[in-house]
Design brief:
mainly alpha; 8 helices
Length: about 200
């Protein structure tokens, strides 16, 4: 693994010695919208017009996918992003995956997942859903990915915009407590639901 190079300048960090690797570690926050909104629309079209599923069923399956995403977001954040490795290689990997965000929470180009990671994961989940849900897979996948896009958008907004609505401001306070008060609680970003279920709200 390449040596990490960290700098506090401009609330960012150089993570790799290689310019090639460093380039792909920066992602504009609009990328998930550009990549996945057309894919979500196509999957909903496929569910209704190609597979001839009733619209109400498609809506229900879509929200099942959203619910799956909220649980996945919670589990990944708690069990993977906040896993505490003990080896030097593990610590470097942890910094690349999530530690850099806690050290530099205002780095605007490291708040969304790089496409080189998100696209393979999206494909894996689609294949898994096909095996599990058959014709219902496109609608559930659309909900899962819509949840992911909302997560990335909300996460970016939390760190870079004032929240005017009461709901969004509560999400912001929930996530900022995770950053600056107790990073062993408040794992939900787009929703605090599972923090209440698993008693990790931190209050």
């Amino acid at each position: 693994m390449e040596q990490l190079y960290v700098s506090k300048q401009n609330e960012s960090a150089r993570m790799f010695k290689s310019d090639f690797m460093e380039f792909f570690s920066h992602v504009h926050p609009s990328i998930p919208l550009v990549l996945y909104v057309p894919a979500i629309a196509y999957m909903l079209y496929s569910s209704i017009w190609r597979h001839q599923l009733p619209i109400l069923l498609v809506v229900a399956l879509f929200f099942v996918g959203v619910l799956i995403w909220t649980l996945l977001e919670y589990v990944i954040h708690r069990q993977i992003f906040h896993y505490q490795p003990t080896t030097p290689v593990g610590k470097k990997l942890h910094f690349i995956v999530h530690g850099v965000h806690h050290d530099y929470p205002n780095d605007a180009k490291r708040l969304v997942m790089p496409p080189v990671i998100s696209i393979p994961l999206a494909i894996i989940f689609y294949v898994l859903f096909l095996l599990l849900f058959g014709k219902g897979a496109p609608a559930i996948w659309a909900g899962l990915v819509a949840g992911y896009v909302c997560y990335d958008s909300i996460h970016y907004a939390i760190h870079h915009f004032p929240m005017q609505s009461r709901l969004l401001n509560r999400l912001k306070q929930h996530h900022l407590r995770h950053h600056f008060h107790n990073d062993q609680a408040g794992y939900g970003v787009s929703s605090p639901f599972w923090d209440y279920v698993f008693r990790t709200n931190g209050r």
